[in-house]
Design brief:
Layout: E1 2-7, E2 10-12, E3 18-26, E4 30-39, E5 46-51, E6 57-59, E7 67-72, E8 77-82, E9 91-100, E10 105-109, E11 113-117
Parallel strand pairs: 2-11
Antiparallel strand pairs: 1-3, 3-8, 4-5, 4-9, 5-6, 7-8, 9-10, 9-11
């Protein structure tokens, strides 16, 4: 059994900040790369940021310089610090993680947390 639980979404004014958290759990699995995706109404889900377990990161061009992804491997938790938020950042944000054994890998998703950037 694997699970990802997100928190931290909400309503924020343009220029404000939010910090999203995602806690992963899975018996008998190692947790590899973790990331954040978002999906706005009527649009496809797309990558926001990803981080390997060794700390290598990659970001969508639209969030570079504003968002920071980080992780705490001891707590199996990934974070997304979002600064200088814009209305176009409004979306449901989903946590993603790879749960691996020596035999197979599970690509898991959280339930999503809504971020609304509006006055």
């Amino acid at each position: 059994q694997v699970q990802l639980v997100e928190s931290g979404g909400g309503l924020v004014q343009p220029g404000g900040s939010l910090r999203l958290s995602c806690a992963a759990s899975g018996s008998h699995f190692d947790i590899g790369a973790m990331g954040w995706y978002h999906q706005a109404p009527g649009k496809e889900r797309e990558l926001v940021a990803v981080i390997t377990r060794d700390g290598i990161t990659n970001y969508a061009d639209s969030v570079k310089g504003r968002f920071t992804i980080s992780r705490d491997n001891a707590r199996n938790t990934v974070y997304l610090q979002m600064n200088s938020l814009k209305p176009e950042d409004t979306a449901v944000y989903y946590c993603n993680a790879k749960f691996t054994t020596t035999k197979f890998v599970i690509n898991a998703w959280g339930q999503g947390t809504l971020v609304t950037v509006s006055s």
